[in-house]
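ESCALATION

Customer reports they have been waiting on this structure for their group meeting. Please prioritize. Original submission:
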Amino acid sequence: MEWSEELAGGLLQAAPDAILVIDGDRIVLVNDRAEQLYGWPRSELVGQSVDVLMTDASRALREERRRVMSESPPGSIGMIRTTACRKDGTEFPVESSTTIVETPQGRLAVAVVRDITERLGAEEERARLRAEAQAHRSQRLESLGQLAGGIAHDFNNMLGVILNYANFVIEEAESAEPDAGMIAADAKQVVKAGQRGTDLTHQLLAFARREVVRPQAIDLNALIGGVRELLCRTLGEHVRLILRPEPGLPSVTCDPAQMEQMLVHLALNARDAMPAGGNLVIDTGRQDDQVRLRVTDTGRGMDAGVLDRAFEPFYTTKGSAEGTGLGLATVYGIVTQAGGEVDITSELGFGTTVTVLLPAGAEPVPEQLDGAQPETEGRGETLLVVEDEDALRDVAGRILRGAGYRVLSAEGGRQALDLASRHDGEIDLLVSDVVMPGMLGKELAERLVVVRPSTRVLYMSGYAQPVLASEGTLDPGVALLEKPFTANDLLTAVRKRLDG
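Update from on-call: job pushed to the front of the queue and completed.
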């Protein structure tokens, strides 16, 4: 059968896919793309059986395709995915669409074939990414569940202590002959449990990098030396503390209180890993443009499974009475918020090493020492206290009035602005919660200062994100009192803001 070169060089050659014209099983015409796709020259491919382009898998469909092609009316018989074979024997996935054409020379099949290797690869990659995303979501949900369970467990314990001891106080105070000593002892238990709750909250915020950070340039060696006694008390007499500071280190910019907290957590972990005693070595040094802090213990170490989960919140191998499982998670949060890196290496029976790398800075700023106790008494100044929690608003007002301040109280931003508009005298200081329904403390302060530019502002919050910069530091000019606070904390912060 003769086929014109004009037909072969026309539309068939312009097609982006391989096109084969098949008479029965014999290939009678191919375009250039078919030569490229299958690796056969046209002169060798034309006249051969289509079987040379088939794999074992595609040959299994041959009899069915023959039947369909012989019985189907002219037109398309659909698209299938199968595999094809090149001249060199390599197999590849294809998408093939076949059309039956009636010609004067007889019934022909025109197959349009496309290599879908890249498409399948992309689909597999998308499927892999979807599977990874699903796995990550599952891991996050598991971590959140673990976090929520740990928080609930610890806070339920603390609340149980607080509620019961508070009831003991009430019962004893209402008894016929109240015992002041017993009341004081029970009240101390309430305060102790409340402090544990405060500590846990700070740990959670540090882990989540939502803790208020007050960074400054510090000498890391001096900081470690300053907490040496505290670390020794934490470790106990059975663990020997060894400090190996490298002299002449550049400063690091971080929150010194958080660095001290981190060292205490690492010391606690080391102590628990060495119940029979051992050594804890803290050394410092340089590593490229970073300052290295390394904490190494000679304890029992961790296996690979425990090591992989070491930084997870509330993951612990200790009993529930021994620890919360937030120690290393808190360390991770503190270091990453300071722009550093933390790594942990360990092996069963050979101890554990935690390595912290912090960006090196300039020379440390000399610490300003002031031994004088800060003043806390009021001088009759007028304070506007805004807090949506009724009990806490009453507590703050009671503390401030007792110290000699005049107090105006409001439960929210709109009430505070209305109260301020009706107040004839000065308002020396706005003491406002940060997160409140209806109006955030920051918006309240901005609106109040417009009409009362002499009013100073002190925020109080347990979650201060709305007034924090992206790095977790306070915005310029912002003063913040973190909740929960004691009477002395509140009075000191108020006096400092008024006098500042």
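Sent to customer with the following note: The radius of gyration is 38 Å.
Escalation resolved.
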